Structure to design on (1851 residues):
């Protein structure tokens, strides 16, 4: 050591104390929230993504915390997805649709309370849907207004001119929107709110209407994702209330005032931030997680399943990998070319390398999942659809029929140019191997095919890209995300936007967004005659008898199967892994409805609300 | 050639390094001849263990891993070598210009260099990679060269400044030689050892950056790159989580580690090869122009006829 | 006085770097501003709404001339507004960054410090055992460790210590049950969580310090004052002290480069360990093309490094009497 | 090598060696500006030496101040300065003062004035001469320039290629150099005044220590070399007192006897 | 003839701070005038930092003066845009102090010698080698031994000779040797100086020798003249023997008296050691720059700077208010042979 006043060591010590390290530590310490008492076991740990969802539903709070809506908030009722428009009531006790389908009266469960003990009232529901008016969602459902009858009763009014099925409105109001606390959110409703909303629905050419619309737009902008922050210290009506968060985990503790609090057996929920799949894989391999919805590769799947108590269950999911075409781009505007390609793709092999776990290869490429096919079509109808099994001979015939020629260098188009395909996919797509397999299948047939990748920004708007001709052929998630055929065919023949738009006269109309597939309004389907797919699709959502609906679905399936706006390669499954180490799970064989996809709730939340899960030991 | 062997033999690790680097260069040159195409997908041969057919096993799509490594070597080495050349070229040019062309050029160039140096190179590369895009290997190499040219330019500049002050430059100017002559014939040869050694260092830097970009998955997918393999191994295919698939994780890691090790060990060889002063020294001349007395050259000093060993 | 000048120069530097980020993103083909604007219009927004939205996200209007955009953007910047994130809808970029930056600063500083310590110790050992197998082993290990990409190290450590042995956690900066602050449980949890990231920083960082330390040590060892110190009959300890400080000081100039390298490494390390720092934020922003966040990260890391450099220079000036600040 | 009758230097422990150095034998180096630790003030360096040789701080400071006076140094300024704040001449004088700090019996001076200007050199030489007398010091003065030392030293040893070629009282050697090398050296110093024609160059190159010629190392440059010089290295032949000697075959009989 | 007319040169010296580009201005040469003829041997003597090297570089055209002008055979080159003017180059050659540094370490002797010859088209490639060999021969090097070697393979003396030979490749008319022998072994110095003198005499070159050593100065400028510089100015100038025999400036006197003498061979000087203040090149006060060190300075010296004027003889110039011979010399004894 150097002695004396000049000691360099001492200087270093003194200076490092004011260094970067200390400074930043103090910033971290400054971040600390207040600690609250920890509840003890049983804690239910699960891995999931932390994306914020939807508009208005709680966004990141002003203090930066992100609350997962599905755990801390519940809707009025939970959709069963059995296809029969059935619901499990949650905050609502019951509801009644008027005979003309234009009034929905909801009776709240008097036991429903917020996490601070105050009751959930009709006013909370009112404010929740006011916010939907504010961002102009409610208007698109044809909702015209609401009336609070008493503390537990609220009536919703639908525009009688809107012709579509009232079940749609029911779904929006009962299931699709979590009820938010008026105490926290009413501050965002302007005083002149309703007058503006009413004025905005007036004569589109009137200046008052225009002014009101402008106001509405301003509000909606303020409330939309990029600008809106939820208030701090929210109260919750869900089974668990938000407690604390780190970047990797979140803790929710049981809400004792939750309407079905007695059913809730997990005192707390620990949510692991599933930034990437491997976070969930590690948790499952370590036996730390009770639940995860995660994709697998085969070795990981076998590694996870080799852990005792881990189980996997697959629910059908109405989406999958499809190859979509720009139907105005030569040669894909030729139905024969699309059909030939369908004959040339070995869907089974492609699925096996593309998405080996959690998918099923498509048996009949008619736009619907196998389950939907079984439900909506008779065996005879199903047999009449073309399964496009691998068949190079048929493909050859089809291609030759439109003037293509096979040479030593491969297939040549009538214009003399070689037939070459570039399959665009997301950069670093999980499906890469599957696409390569498809490419090699086509290559071996003589169609020069290569895989290429899009920029991530482009991937989010692939459908736009296909629509505008940026990508003649692209691969993407495709499907309605809903077992009801309407959503599938809406996407295929009308718009890829799942929330179709309704104009003032109640007609489904083309939105401002270009169509993915520029499907013609009438298609001549062999053996079926001329079909008007858009009319048929719209008809599916109007009040028609089930038998007519089924006939319409068949016609649409035949049309899709013939016209092939996209070639469905494989359908995905909603794979869920759960551990029975600490919890008993419902018996999915006895109650397949439980397997279906729930919109905003993580499945175990629903099982808990229904009282189907119990801690072991 | 004899000196080369001599240098090699001095340390065993150097032989290892040269063999490793030669192996990868061989792969890069002849790989596409041995394996003309990317290995095919075999849906029924997923994650096979190493065997005679598949020396490194197969990946998540049943592809043979070895050809992927071999074919990856060309892409990795080509882009990295190009990037290293760019790095060294830009660095040398800017360093020479700043050091030789006077204080105004110097201060402009060095402010710019300082700024680039302050920005973390990987961050800069990331931003450039996605704004400019990496449509081909040359552009990619150009972007990657941002990783190192700043440091290179600074070093070259300070060397030029010090060489410029050495009197042989003044003498040469005094003899009426042109600027070009002085730069090319007097200054550049003195920088050459540094430039060549830095070329090797820039190579490791470029491999790091290039493979890293593919590992992060931010630049367009390229089937034959180790970074992509590593990305899929750690991410989508989760090769880390099962011993069955471990070869897919280990192969690219091993390839990267061995290549970098090879380059590093060869840097040592190159260093000695290009700098004769490290090899054999007559007189006490050292690179920095200072003369030092060699304390070890005379082991014995005879005093008054009696011999004593001297030591400190 | 020179410190003030230096800070002023740094501020100018930061201004220039931030301006470059502005123009870099704006003047590139496929200008994300107009892309986003057109996308919003296509999604059904009126041009006015879309403009407003883009302005909120990116801090400037896409339709204005670039110069006007630049002024708008600068005005917002002066008010500490960097726009809002596209991915984490509505969250101001500054908030994201200020939540992330401290974690990175702490881990990077610890990593820098520890790797520096290990590096100088090994460097001195290697220099004092010059031309023996010890120094050859140390040098080879050092230069190879320096050359092995940090992500490879990160993946290897993650595999060994988390997947195989379950010893250390794989993600996050601390356990959920801890309250960040000056309390032992939190510090312990934090320490536990940063073992792997720090290990990676250190493995990647010590090599260059070792090599630099070795060469400066050898240089100082040959300096006349070292021989003089021996002849003057100073104790071994004091001679080592002279040697140490004189060899370490020149390394301060390397801080600039190493800080940049460390921050660059944090992109890989933090995304591998899902560590909530600025590197992870940047990696995510880059993969999702979240331009405002990218810009912010870029600017803030650069600014941090510039000021760390000023600090290092200042320290250097205090430590080395030959340098005046 | 034994100093003052102590043990052989090379048998000593490090601690014994370091006690011997500076307390008994001190040294002044050629490049004095480089022999001071650049990071420490002169005061600190003095204290370091004092502490390692168990001298009281205050006592060391006092003698340091005294030495500064002798060296014509402003002690207030110099002691508080860092080495780089001093000029070359000042640093040289500081390093001489450091050498005298512990009152050594012997000071070895290795070209202490080579880096200095003529006038600084003169003043340093004068100081050394004064100090030698006042402190009763032994000096060993190593230099390439005979003229520098001729006024200070008593005895001179001339070395060539690692060997002593001539030794004797300084006046004797300068007035009557015996070895051809000494003669050549003296002849190559141009006189300040008087006849320049006697100034002659020594021919050839200095011997390369790695490739010493066979026989007398000087024979290739020697104007008086004869066959024996090429075959046999001469021994240093001294007179009876061992004070005067020369290593040259010119002064040896065939049998190697002393002919002086 | 080279004429130096009121030439000054100042430098911006950077401070040691690692970043800031601040510095202070140092006047290395101040208002120097002299003339130098072809075939004339000239020595400049002064302590380090007195500006003698800068003056040499100015004369050789390596630097441009900040004030005044230098005329080469009546033509002023001070107006040329950049230093190292090509015509100048062939006229005046500078031999720097350090032969190690003066030769590019990575190039072989052959190239070093040949390039200037071919560059200036003095001879074609084939003749160039011959010419180079002749020049090497002339400076006492065996061309065969050195031509294929690198500079670091030569000894110090050989290197210095090589530098001289290289300077001669462009056929200069003037040679400036800046401390050209101080880095060389003592036993070799006379040999090199002899070569320089011999070549200069043969080729009728002007030889300017810059040194701090009066012995060397006298040896070179025997029959020529000596100028003594102090802080950028010439304080005394005149024929060699006059300067040495009867210096008039106190500074010259103290310099000469500080030269160590060979005890017993040469007479001891009566020493005139200036007071102990350090030399400083900054903050020059008005008045004589030597005043604060001068034992004879009075109020006049502190107020008024003396100018360089002829004194005892028209060629002996001195800048001092109190220029007078002071007794320095006693007698000379011859060394024994």
């Amino acid at each position: 050591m150097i002695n004396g006043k000049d000691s360099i060591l001492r200087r270093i010590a003194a200076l490092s104390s004011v260094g970067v390290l200390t400074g930043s530590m103090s910033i971290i310490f400054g971040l600390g929230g207040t600690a609250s008492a920890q509840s003890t076991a049983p804690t239910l740990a699960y891995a999931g993504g932390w994306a914020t969802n939807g508009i208005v539903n709680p966004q990141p709070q002003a203090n930066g915390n992100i609350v997962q809506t599905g755990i801390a908030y519940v809707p009025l009722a939970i959709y069963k997805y059995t296809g029969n428009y059935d619901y499990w009531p949650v905050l609502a006790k019951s509801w009644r649709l008027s005979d003309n389908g234009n009034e929905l009266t909801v009776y709240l469960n008097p036991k429903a309370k917020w996490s601070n003990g105050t009751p959930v009232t009709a006013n909370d529901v009112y404010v929740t849907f006011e916010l939907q008016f504010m961002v102009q969602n409610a208007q698109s459902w044809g909702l015209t207004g609401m009336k609070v009858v008493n503390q537990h009763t609220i009536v919703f009014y639908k525009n009688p001119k809107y012709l579509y099925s009232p079940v749609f409105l029911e779904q929006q109001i009962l299931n699709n929107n979590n009820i938010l606390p008026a105490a926290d959110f009413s501050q965002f409703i302007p005083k002149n709110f309703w007058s503006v909303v009413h004025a905005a629905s007036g004569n589109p050419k009137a200046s008052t209407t225009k002014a009101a619309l402008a106001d509405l737009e301003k509000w909606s902008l303020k409330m939309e994702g990029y600008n809106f922050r939820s208030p701090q210290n929210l109260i919750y009506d869900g089974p668990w209330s938000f407690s604390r968060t780190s970047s990797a985990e979140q803790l929710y503790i049981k809400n004792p005032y939750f309407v079905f609090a007695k059913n809730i057996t997990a005192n707390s929920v620990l949510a692991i931030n599933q930034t990437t799949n491997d976070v969930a894989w590690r948790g499952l391999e370590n036996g730390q997680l009770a639940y995860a919805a995660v994709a697998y590769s085969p070795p990981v799947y076998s590694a996870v399943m080799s852990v005792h108590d881990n189980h996997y269950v697959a629910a059908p999911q109405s989406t999958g990998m499809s190859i979509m075409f720009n139907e105005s781009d030569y040669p894909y505007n030729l139905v024969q070319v699309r059909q030939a390609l369908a004959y040339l793709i070995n869907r089974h092999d492609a699925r096996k390398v593309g998405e080996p776990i959690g998918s099923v290869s498509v048996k009949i490429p008619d736009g619907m999942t196998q389950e939907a096919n079984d439900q909506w079509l008779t065996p005879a109808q199903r047999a009449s659809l073309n399964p496009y099994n691998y068949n190079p001979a048929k493909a050859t015939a089809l291609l030759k029929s439109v003037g293509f020629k096979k040479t030593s260098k491969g297939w040549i188009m009538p214009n003399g140019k070689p037939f070459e395909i570039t399959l665009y996919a997301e950069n670093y797509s999980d499906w890469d191997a599957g696409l390569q397999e498809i490419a090699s299948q086509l290559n071996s047939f003589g169609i020069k095919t290569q895989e290429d990748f899009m920029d991530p920004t482009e991937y989010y708007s692939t459908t736009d890209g296909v629509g505008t001709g940026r990508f003649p052929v692209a691969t993407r998630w495709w499907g309605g995300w809903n077992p009801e055929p309407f959503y599938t065919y809406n996407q295929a023949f009308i718009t890829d936007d799942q929330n179709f738009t309704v104009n003032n006269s109640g007609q489904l109309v083309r939105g401002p967004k270009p169509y993915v597939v520029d499907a013609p309004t009438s298609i001549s389907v062999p053996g079926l005659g001329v079909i008007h797919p858009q009319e048929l699709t719209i008809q599916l959502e109007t009040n028609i008898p089930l038998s007519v609906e089924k006939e319409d679905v068949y016609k649409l399936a035949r049309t899709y199967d013939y016209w092939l706006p996209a070639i469905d390669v494989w359908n995905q499954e909603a794979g869920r892994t759960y551990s029975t180490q600490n919890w008993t799970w419902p018996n999915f064989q006895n109650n397949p409805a439980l397997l279906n996809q729930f919109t905003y709730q993580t499945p175990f939340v629903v099982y808990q609300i229904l009282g189907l899960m119990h801690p072991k030991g | 050639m004899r000196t080369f062997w001599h240098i090699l033999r001095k340390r065993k690790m150097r032989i290892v390094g040269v063999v490793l680097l030669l192996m990868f260069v061989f792969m890069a040159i002849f790989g596409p001849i041995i394996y003309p195409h990317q290995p095919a997908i075999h849906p029924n041969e997923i994650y096979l263990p190493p065997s005679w057919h598949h020396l490194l096993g197969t990946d998540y799509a049943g592809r043979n891993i070895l050809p992927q490594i071999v074919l990856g070597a060309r892409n990795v080495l080509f882009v990295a070598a190009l990037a290293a050349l760019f790095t060294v070229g830009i660095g040398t040019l800017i360093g020479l210009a700043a050091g030789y062309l006077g204080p105004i050029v110097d201060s402009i160039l060095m402010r710019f260099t300082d700024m680039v140096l302050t920005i973390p190179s990987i961050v800069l590369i990331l931003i450039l990679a996605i704004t400019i895009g990496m449509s081909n290997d040359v552009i990619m190499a150009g972007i990657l060269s941002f990783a190192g040219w700043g440091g290179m330019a600074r070093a070259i500049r300070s060397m030029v400044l010090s060489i410029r002050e050495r009197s042989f430059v003044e003498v040469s100017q005094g003899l009426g030689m042109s600027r070009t002559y002085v730069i090319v014939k007097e200054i550049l040869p003195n920088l050459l050892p540094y430039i060549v050694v830095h070329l090797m260092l820039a190579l490791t830097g470029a491999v790091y950056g290039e493979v890293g970009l593919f590992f992060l998955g931010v630049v367009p997918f390229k089937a034959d790159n180790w970074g992509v393999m590593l990305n899929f191994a750690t991410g989508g295919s989760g090769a880390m989580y099962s011993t069955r698939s471990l070869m897919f994780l280990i192969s690219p890691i091993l390839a990267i580690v061995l290549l970098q090790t090879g380059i590093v060990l060869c840097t040592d060889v190159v260093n000695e090869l290009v700098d004769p002063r490290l090899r054999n020294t007559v007189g006490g001349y050292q690179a920095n122009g200072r003369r030092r007395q060699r304390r070890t050259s005379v082991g014995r000093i005879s005093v008054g006829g009696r011999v004593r060993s001297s030591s400190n | 006085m020179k410190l003030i000048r230096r800070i002023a120069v740094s501020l100018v530097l930061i201004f220039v770097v931030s301006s470059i980020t502005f123009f870099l993103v704006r003047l590139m083909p496929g200008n994300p501003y107009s892309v986003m604007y057109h996308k919003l219009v296509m999604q059904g927004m009126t041009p006015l709404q879309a403009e407003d939205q883009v302005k909120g996200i990116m801090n400037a209007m896409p339709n204005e001339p670039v110069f006007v955009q630049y002024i708008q953007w600068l005005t917002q910047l002066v008010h500490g507004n960097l726009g809002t994130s596209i991915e984490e809808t509505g969250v101001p970029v500054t908030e994201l960054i200020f939540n992330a930056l401290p974690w990175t600063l702490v881990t990077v500083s610890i990593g820098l410090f520890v790797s520096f310590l290990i590096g100088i110790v090994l460097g001195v050992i290697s220099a004092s055992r010059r031309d023996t197998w010890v120094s050859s082993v140390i040098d080879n290990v050092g230069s190879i460790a320096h050359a092995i990409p940090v992500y490879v190290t990160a993946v290897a450590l993650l595999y060994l210590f988390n997947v195989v042995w379950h010893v250390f956690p794989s993600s996050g900066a601390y356990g959920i049950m801890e309250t960040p602050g000056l309390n032992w449980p939190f510090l312990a949890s934090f320490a536990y969580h940063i073992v792997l990231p720090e290990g990676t920083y250190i493995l990647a960082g010590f090599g260059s310090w070792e090599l630099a330390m070795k060469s400066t040590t050898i240089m100082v060892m040959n300096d006349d004052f070292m021989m003089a110190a021996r002849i003057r009959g100073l104790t071994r300890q004091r001679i080592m002290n002279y040697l140490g400080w004189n060899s370490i000081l020149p390394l301060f100039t390397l801080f600039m480069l190493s800080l940049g390298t460390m921050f660059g490494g944090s992109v890989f390390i933090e995304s591998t360990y899902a560590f909530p720092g600025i590197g992870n934020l940047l990696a995510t922003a880059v993969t999702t093309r979240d331009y405002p966040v990218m810009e912010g990260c870029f600017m803030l890391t650069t600014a941090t490094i510039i000021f760390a450099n000023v600090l290092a220079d200042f320290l250097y000036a205090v430590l080395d009497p030959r340098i005046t600040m | 090598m034994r100093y003052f009758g102590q043990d052989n230097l090379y048998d000593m422990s490090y601690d014994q060696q370091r006690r011997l150095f500076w307390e008994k034998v001190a040294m002044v180096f050629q490049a004095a500006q480089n022999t001071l630790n650049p990071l420490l003030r002169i005061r600190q360096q003095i204290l370091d030496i004092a502490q390692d040789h168990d001298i009281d701080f205050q006592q060391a400071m006092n003698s340091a101040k005294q030495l500064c006076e002798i060296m014509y140094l402003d002690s207030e300024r110099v002691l508080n300065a860092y080495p780089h704040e001093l000029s070359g001449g000042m640093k040289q004088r500081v390093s001489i003062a450091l050498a005298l700090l512990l009152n050594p019996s012997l000071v070895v001076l290795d070209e202490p004035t080579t880096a200095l200007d003529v006038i600084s050199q003169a003043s340093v030489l004068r100081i050394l001469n004064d100090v030698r007398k006042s402190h009763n010091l032994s000096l060993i003065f190593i230099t390439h320039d005979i003229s520098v030392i001729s006024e200070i030293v008593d005895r001179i040893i001339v070395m060539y290629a690692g060997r002593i070629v001539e030794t004797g009282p300084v006046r004797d050697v300068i007035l009557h150099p015996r070895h051809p090398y000494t003669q050549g050296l003296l002849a190559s110093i141009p006189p300040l005044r008087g006849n320049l024609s006697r100034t002659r160059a020594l021919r050839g190159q200095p011997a390369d220590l790695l490739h010493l010629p066979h026989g007398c190392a000087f024979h290739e440059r020697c104007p008086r070399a004869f066959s024996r010089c090429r075959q046999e290295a001469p021994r240093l032949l001294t007179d009876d007192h061992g004070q005067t000697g020369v290593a040259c075959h010119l002064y040896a009989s065939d049998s190697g006897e002393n002919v002086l | 003839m080279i004429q130096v007319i009121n030439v000054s040169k100042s430098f911006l010296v950077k401070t040691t701070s690692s970043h800031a580009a601040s510095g202070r201005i140092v006047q290395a040469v101040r208002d120097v005038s002299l003339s130098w003829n072809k075939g004339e041997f000239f020595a400049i003597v002064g302590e380090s930092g007195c500006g003698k090297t800068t003056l040499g570089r100015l004369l050789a055209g390596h630097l441009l003066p900040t004030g005044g002008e230098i005329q080469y055979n009546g033509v002023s080159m001070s107006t040329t845009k950049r230093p190292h003017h090509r015509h100048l180059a062939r006229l005046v050659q500078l031999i720097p102090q350090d032969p190690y540094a003066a030769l590019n370490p990575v190039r072989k002797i052959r190239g070093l010698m040949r390039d200037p010859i071919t560059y200036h088209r003095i001879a074609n490639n084939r003749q160039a080698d011959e010419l180079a060999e002749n020049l090497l021969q002339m400076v006492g090097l065996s061309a065969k031994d050195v031509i294929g070697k690198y500079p670091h393979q030569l000894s110090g003396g050989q290197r210095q000779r090589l530098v001289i030979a290289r300077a001669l490749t462009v056929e200069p008319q003037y040679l400036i040797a800046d401390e050209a022998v101080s880095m060389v072994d003592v036993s070799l110095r006379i040999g090199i100086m002899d070569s320089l003198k011999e070549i200069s005499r043969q080729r009728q070159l002007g030889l300017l020798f810059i040194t701090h050593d009066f012995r060397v100065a006298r040896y070179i400028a025997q029959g020529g003249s000596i100028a003594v510089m102090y802080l950028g100015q010439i304080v005394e100038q005149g024929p060699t023997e006059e300067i040495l025999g009867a210096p008039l400036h106190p500074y010259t006197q103290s310099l000469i008296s500080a030269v160590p003498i060979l005890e017993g061979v040469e007479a001891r000087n009566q020493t005139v050691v200036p007071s102990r203040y350090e030399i400083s090149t900054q903050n020059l006060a008005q008045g004589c720059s030597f005043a604060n060190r001068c034992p004879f300075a009075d109020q006049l010296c502190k107020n008024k700077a003396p100018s360089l004027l002829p004194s005892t003889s028209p060629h002996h110039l001195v800048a001092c208010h109190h220029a007078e011979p002071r007794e320095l010399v006693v007698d000379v004894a011859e060394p024994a042979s």
User: Anything to note?
Assistant: Strands of chain D lie at 25-28, 106-110, 138-142, 155-160, 163-169, 237-238, 245-246. Chain D touches chain B at residues 1, 10, 162-164, 209-210, 235-236 (CB under 8 Å). The longest helix of chain D spans residues 118-135. The longest strand of chain D covers residues 163-169.
